[in-house]
Design goal:
6-stranded mixed sheet; alpha/beta; 27% helix
């Protein structure tokens, strides 16, 4: 029997959700539609043996006691144990190149000091590699060990830090400033927004409310597009920063929360947009730049970089795979992007700002939804695929 290999590259929110949905729903539907004439197998390529719940990273960073590693890092090996070896395989390594003609991916072992590469061939390909932050504190790039090491260094340095500078006025920067100001009220904390205001995806009134809450926690917020242009040591502790106004600052801790870049270096350049994102030729179906290639999440051109652009896209994209392989009607409605103002930003355990679908939320609502625990209870559900138990 012929085997059709569906390879999913990336094992964070987008990759895990896609792999589980394919295994639970798409493949059984394909086997039924095609009369069991073809076998289907999902291969998930992950640079890490662990899933990191990056939504909780500001609190994980702030203290090992609030969200311990045991809750923030979860092993992947047990997440797919319900599926047989002929239906699913997990390949640990980083995709470093792709041969479009041969339909093959070269994977580098991320846990070996030796140059160990393997080749994974695909019939259909889902690109779900996400985006990488400038600091390993926020998400995984390669093995989970580098992020754990960065977090441990922060945990050791924070209690004795007198000066902390955070660059980036988005959710990660604002949330981290709120966490650190709550736990270390004696530290002098400065937040550079890098813009004219904080949280630019939210309306100005909500941005102002966030700044007011930070000010109440004694955080100094600086705008005027002041940015860090050089970190002289390249380290996050005991360093000198050169700023865009030609001044310098010596700080005990520097936290870079200035943004991300798509993990697409291994892909052919003609598959990518100018910003390095994978071209999604049809945003409604999540089909990629060439036949049998699909893209989802932060690496994809359609994405606004939020969790809705992942969770709301899994079913439509898997439906496109079903339609392409069966020749039958889609099993899901087309992807509909949520463009309404939606963002929840905790500021310490008891505060925060946000909006959902255009509706401004009071601080107590943000606390109940996210601030109290950064939604860490969702981590095991993400790994197990529980949220996609139903088609």
């Amino acid at each position: 029997m012929a085997v059709h290999d569906i390879v999913v590259v990336g094992a964070n929110f987008a990759g895990l959700g896609t792999a589980h949905y394919l295994l639970k729903h798409t493949i059984p539907a394909l086997e039924k539609a095609n009369g069991n004439s073809t076998a289907y197998k999902v291969t998930l390529i992950s640079p890490s043996t662990q899933f990191y719940f990056k939504i909780g990273s500001p609190r994980v960073l702030a203290s090992p006691d609030l969200i311990p590693f045991s809750k923030a890092f979860l092993p992947l090996k047990d997440a797919f144990k319900e599926y047989s070896a002929d239906r699913f395989s997990l390949v640990i390594g980083e995709a470093v190149s792709l041969d479009e003609e041969k339909k093959s991916i070269t994977v580098r072992d991320t846990y070996s000091t030796a140059a160990k590469n393997s080749t994974v061939r695909y019939s259909s390909l889902v690109i779900a590699t996400g985006a990488t932050a400038n600091s390993p504190l926020w998400n995984l790039k390669g093995s989970h060990e580098s992020t754990m090491a960065a977090l441990k260094e922060m945990h050791a340095s924070l209690p004795k830090a007198k000066t902390i500078l955070i660059a980036g006025g988005g959710p990660a920067g604002v949330e981290t400033a709120g966490e650190l100001a709550t736990i270390y009220p004696k530290a002098s904390i400065t937040l550079l927004s890098g813009s004219t205001r904080l949280l630019t995806r939210l309306r100005p009134a909500i941005s102002a409310a966030a700044e007011s809450q930070l000010n109440n926690l004694s955080v100094t917020v600086i705008h005027k597009s002041l940015k860090v242009v050089e970190n002289t040591t390249g380290k996050s502790t005991n360093t000198t920063l050169h700023l865009s106004d030609d001044t310098s600052r010596d700080v005990d801790i520097y936290i870079d929360a200035t943004g991300t870049r798509p993990n697409s270096d291994f892909l052919p350049s003609h598959w990518l947009t100018k910003s390095g994102h994978v071209r999604t030729e049809d945003k409604l179906t999540l089909r990629g730049p060439v036949s049998s290639v699909y893209a989802i999440g932060d690496v994809a051109g359609y994405s606004l970089g939020n969790i809705f652009d992942i969770n709301d896209a899994v079913r439509p994209m898997c439906s496109s795979i079903y339609q392409d392989l069966s020749g039958k009607k889609p099993t899901s409605k087309p992807f509909k992007q949520n463009i309404a103002e939606t963002q929840l930003v905790p500021i310490g355990p008891n505060g925060g700002v946000g909006a959902v679908f255009g509706w401004k939320l009071p601080a107590f609502a943000v606390k109940m939804i996210k601030s109290k625990d950064f939604m860490i209870g969702q981590a095991p559900k993400t790994v197990s695929g529980e949220q996609f138990a139903k088609a």
